[in-house]
Design goal:
The chain has 815 residues and is of the alpha+beta class. The two termini are 60 Å apart.
Amino acid sequence: MAEQPITTEEAKGKTIDDLFEKFSSRREGLTGSEAQSRVQTYGYNEIPEKKKSPILKFLKYFWGPIPWMIEAALIISAVIQRWEDFAIISSLLLINAIVGFWQERQAGNAIEMLRERLAIEARALRDGKWQKLPARELVPGDIVRIRLGDVVPADIKLVEGDYLSADESALTGESMPVDKHLSDVGYSGSIVKQGEMTGLVVSTGLNTFFGKTARLAEEAVTVSHFQKAVTKIGDYLIILAIALVSITFVVSLVRQENLLETLQFALVLIVAAIPAAMPAVLSITMAVGAVALARKEAIVSKLVAIEEMAGVDILCSDKTGTITENSLTLSDIVPFEAATKEDVLLDAILASREEDQDPIDTAILTSEQAKSQQGQVANYRVLNFKPFDPVIKRTQATVEDADGARFSVAKGAPQVILQLTGGSRELEERIDELSNDFAKKGFRMLGVARSNDNDTWVYTGVLGLHDPPRADSAATIKTAQGMGLEVKMVTGDHVAIAREIAREVNLKSDIVTADAFLNEHDTEAGEIVEKADGFAEVFPEHKYRIVSLLQGRGHIVGMTGDGVNDAPALKKADVGIAVAGATDAAKSAASIVLTKPGLSVIIDAVKESRKIFQRMDHYVTYRIAETIHALFFITLAILIFGFFPITALMIVLLALLNDIPIMTIAWDNVLYSRSPERWNMREILTLSTIIGFVGVVSSFVMLAIVQGPLHLPLEVIRSLIFLKLAVAGHLTVFVARTRGPFWSVRPAPILLGAVIATQTFATLITVYGIFVAPIGWPLAVFVWVYALFWAFGITDFIKVRTYNIIDHSGIRFSR
């Protein structure tokens, strides 16, 4: 065994036999024990990530503008010997770091889970049989099989097969596919566009030429449009906070307040007011959502795909395997001229290959009719097999019979086989007639031909294959339509087949062919595509045009696909969905990968995405409202009444009590919208501003009550205001989380429990005077009753009325 790896360039210069000898390998592949020992020598076939030390990750939370402000306030507390303040501010600094570290770790774990679920698999010859295994387990000396749609899992020397065409554009920038032949090298990360060959693994992991394997989830932390918008809102709130606090600071200096105490207060107020945790909370919400989607068999390749999925209003769904079962059965055989049904079936069997696990090949080879011909098939030997090619749209095989005579067989689309055989006008009309008859039954037709001299082809007959709709497709489509999601069926089958399947699943029957929109101007073509209920006789390359036209009409488009030629459309779509069993190329282009077949998986993913969207919306509304409430109340109280309504220590305690439970909003119970989601910043800002200023009014009314009729001492007033801000802040969470009355959706136990725990703590320290002046139980009860009345009696009523005024869409929500 080679102890030292060789470079891909060295492998290029060696013969196939030299490499087999170099790696102590053979055409029958390695054994499992040999492969395991080579992992120790060469390592796993992966690019090790440079992982930061957890300690350094944790320490970075003490470095930056926000931590600097807290640390400055900490130093000032020590200078003026406010040791209680020092202890609490230290706690704030530490808890902020712990919370941030935990959230980053959760998001990282979710992304790692996605990478593992999306990892490339390879077909390797181990222990004398072909098996699928994770690409990371490949070692030099392994024998692998690559074919149309595969991502090449390692650098390989091609040792068997005719040719393949590989797309290396992502690696070299070369836009045209590169032809590969026997003894050429295939590069890790390139995509097979045509052909099928066997290769010997020569380099893995860091030793590959490009080192780009297993990177399907590399963009899992992309910043979405909404996150950018939220960052802008955060910047706006920061500017607002600094402006108002600066006014407070200047006024306090004019009033000859203590400089250090005023500076400490100003720094702490800025820290408490700035929504520094907003991006982190949104990330953890999407990370938790990604895990929930994975449980529903939908793997997101990047977290922001969740936001995009929630907004989809048109879903272009493949018929085969998504709307239908993708379990083809051989239902009819029609021979032509002198051929018999047995002749047609024999040719079809010989033009199929079991190991490719192609659905059409499987349907033919496992049919009852084929089983009866097993004895006859044994008399033939396939010398050369060309798998299905999306360009020529047929499979072809060269066969030798028991007498040594050679002939060729082919199967494919009826019109393709007709063109191959050069059939007569009469035969063309016969095929059209059969095609219509089959289509009305929902059968897919396949042409079969034979050539005895490799030049003259004879059309021997056609097969009828049936793929029935899934049992749940009709109900799922009805559910989708009730969610404002229009489903358009896309198929390469005859238009009559598409209409029959559409009828069976309760889709409308306005099915158009690709010819209807390919040659039209964008405006006319867009109208045709938008009005159509589905598309038939569509090639994969037409899907890109469909997506582009629908996007041009203002739609958020989801597109399903499974093949290498679907990749451009999957990339172009707002949400590219690689269905179960998709090629590696389709998975790498898609933003969501399904691991279970059927349309219901997609609809479940849409529902879950809309729920995640709602959680983010609720958090942003709450966070902006509370920032406005705290900032304006404290600033105006200082300007109007001439004193600080709460102390710096109390602000720190408020920040602590707010940050801990709000993380649990990622697990909250929500309703999903019955319409596609859109980020409506005008609505969010309007609602949160109104809620915020209602809070300001409620706090001023309480301040007037405790200063006027109750005549409470200043220290007690501050403690009472502190408790009011703490209680009212978390009650705002329950107001902001529903569009209807607060009781319309029950909060998740984890959210409710976190709020109860923190508010019990706030109440106890205020009643018994821990860190603050004691107020006793009567005043504490008064604060709770007052806060509950304002939150659920006034603020919630105003919120519902505000939604009624600003929301004219009539959006409904469901569980």
